[in-house]
Amino acid sequence: MTRSYLLFACLCSLSFSLHAQTPELTAWIYNTTGLTGSHYEVGTYTPFSDDALANVQEVEYSDDNVYVHSTGVPAYPTGPFQDGNPSYASELEYLFRIPRDPEPNTGTLTEPGLGHIGVWINGVPVYNYSDAMSYNGMDIWHRNAVVFENAGFDCSKGHPAPIMGAPGPDIPGMYHHHQNPSPFSAATAPLSDVCESYPADGLYIPDAGQHSPLLGYAFDGYPIYGAYAYGNADGSGGITRMESGWAKRDITQRHTLADGTVLDMAEWGPDVNDSYPLGAYKEDFEFTGGGDLDVHNGRFAVTPEYPEGTYAYYTTIDEDGNSAFPYVIGETYCGIVAADNFPMGPVLTSVVISEPTNVYDPSTAVVLLELPEIMLFPNPATDQVQLQVLGVLHTDQEVLATDLLGNSTLLKVWPAGTTRLAMDVSGLAAGYYQLTIGNNQQQTHRSLMIIR
């Protein structure tokens, strides 16, 4: 794989602190070009362009906090939501606060409640496992959104929560992911066929051959990674899939809880069957202490962005590549939470910037960033080709096709925050081409043969 790097762009700025160049600033996918989102509608197999700005709009920072301004709209296409959800991914004004020096919570631990519990690097909220409902409304058997709402997720495994207003179609919604933000089609045995008709990217594609990218931050300030990491916490041991310490209980009837509590008959859940499979409720799981991760679904470990080590959460998946409970964060956060991030009634967050801040300029990034592995298919090709990146695309990339005479054609601009790019090459003559994928800071090359 061709290696390319972002160069140190701000060496001449002595006033720029080293603390200002840490991952909680550099990891975000910034919208520097006015990129907007897009969406599918049922029965229409080409996404419509939207007016809503995508990805992160701006980041402010102080010594203690990072403030993320985003719309909650991803660069990859959203929808359709085929379970009757009347809302859509609408442009909102989020302001999140991420502590820069997270601390473990040695007191009463904080549960990740309903609504956003963290934020992905594209500014889209992270939600927990729940769909806010329980069996018979008893608040005992809590429904697993990943099971009950599966039919309503789009290809990227996201959907919007309706913002209450007048009834009817086209209700504004808060788009979010309860789980690993990769497309269903990335799994070897997908749990939905939505990608067959409405293909989309997701934030990243899991790659078993390399450490997963940093995908977001929890509201206690600790990073969230994908499913693959170093086998050992010290950075040794090769790459392995992080397995959760949570497992399904060995039950056929929902008469007891994992802690041994015997329930009254009125508190029983439904028997395990095809309509209510094991795993449909949060109480179907128990923490066994197995796997690689603790009760919070994380561990302290060396990562590429934190060579000295950090506590981190992981978006767990099973051996087929499908999301695995508790998906992102367990029953509680590990650290002290910036609770002003939590939704308060109609207010998206309660974050107020009440300290002096600087606005981060993403062009000053000093992080060495290897361009992720990129696949090209089909090859040879006739009219259409696709590029697929394994990992996260942090910056826009131009795709140029150069023939044997040195003539170059700009095929397309690949937007940051997406993982797949379809290109029309019907205008290219038959022959050999070199594709150059990159920008003025990083490049990689692929060979392409056009046949007619």
Describe this entry's structure for a reader.
It is a single chain. The protein has 452 residues and is mainly beta. The protein folds into 2 domains: 18-364, no CATH class; 373-450, Immunoglobulin-like, CATH 2.60.40.3080. Helix content is 3%, strand content 31%. The protein is built from 3 helices and 28 strands. It has helices spanning 23-26, 145-148, 194-197, and strands at 36-41, 44-53, 56-61, 65-70, 87-89, 94-99, 116-120, 125-127, 130-134, 142-144, 158-162, 171-177, 214-218, 223-225, 228-230, 239-241, 246-248, 285-287, 298-301, 310-314, 358-359, 373-377, 384-390, 397-402, 408-414, 420-424, 431-438, 443-450. The strands form 9 sheets. Strands 8-7-13-14-20-19 form a 6-stranded mixed beta sheet, with no helix packed on it. A 4-stranded antiparallel beta sheet has the order 6-4-3-21, with no helix packed on it. It has a 4-stranded antiparallel beta sheet with strand order 25-24-27-28, with no helix packed on it. A hairpin with an 8-residue loop joins β11 and β12 (171-177). The two termini are 29 Å apart.
Short note summarizing the structure:
The protein is mainly beta. The protein is built from 3 helices and 28 strands.
Quote the distance from N terminus to C terminus. Answer: 29 Å
What would you call the shape?
A: globular
Query: What is the arithmetic mean of pLDDT?
Result: 91
User: Order of strands across the widest beta sheet?
Assistant: 8-7-13-14-20-19
Low-pLDDT sequence parts: 1-18
Helix count equals: 3
Strand fraction equals: 25-35%
* Largest sheet: number of strands, sense, barrel closure: 6 strands, mixed
Helix percentage: under 10%
